[in-house]
């Protein structure tokens, strides 16, 4: 089951990586400025609002923009590493496994 979740998360990330035709012609420091950065709080179900393409609902921390991972090294700061659901953990409190711990 763990590997199925990881595959699902990777597929979500791959789909999100495709370019958005609405972004064509946007350049400079304001390009993508309306997207939320990695580990920002987000609105559940609004994956397209995140730069990473995934707004994941962490049980104890609420929804945050994250991305798919397989190992801790796949996750940059401020994430403490990869959780059992195949996405980078949200920082602060809990163990980030998605099981409420």
Rg calculated over all Cα atoms? 14 Å
Tally of discrete structural domains:
1
Amino-to-carboxy terminus distance: 19 Å
Structural class: alpha+beta
Number of strands: 2
Helical content band: 10-25%
**Weakly predicted, low-confidence segments:** 1-30
Q: List the helices and strands in order.
A: HEE
Helices, by number, come to 1
Coarse morphology: globular
Largest sheet: 2 strands, antiparallel
Strand content: 5-15%
Query: What is the spatial order of strands in the main beta sheet?
Result: 1-2
Mean pLDDT: 75
Textual characterization of the structure:
The protein is α+β, with helices and mostly antiparallel strands and 101 residues long. The protein has one domain. The chain is 16% helix and 10% strand. It contains one helix and two strands, in the order αββ. Strands 1-2 form a two-stranded antiparallel ribbon. The protein is globular and about 30 Å long. It starts with a helix and ends in a 35-residue tail after the last strand.
What's the quick description here?
By secondary structure, this protein is α+β, with helices and mostly antiparallel strands. The chain has one helix at residues 2-17; strands at residues 54-58, 62-66.
Keywords, separated by commas or semicolons:
globular; disordered N terminus; 101 residues; 2 strands; alpha+beta; single chain; two-stranded antiparallel sheet
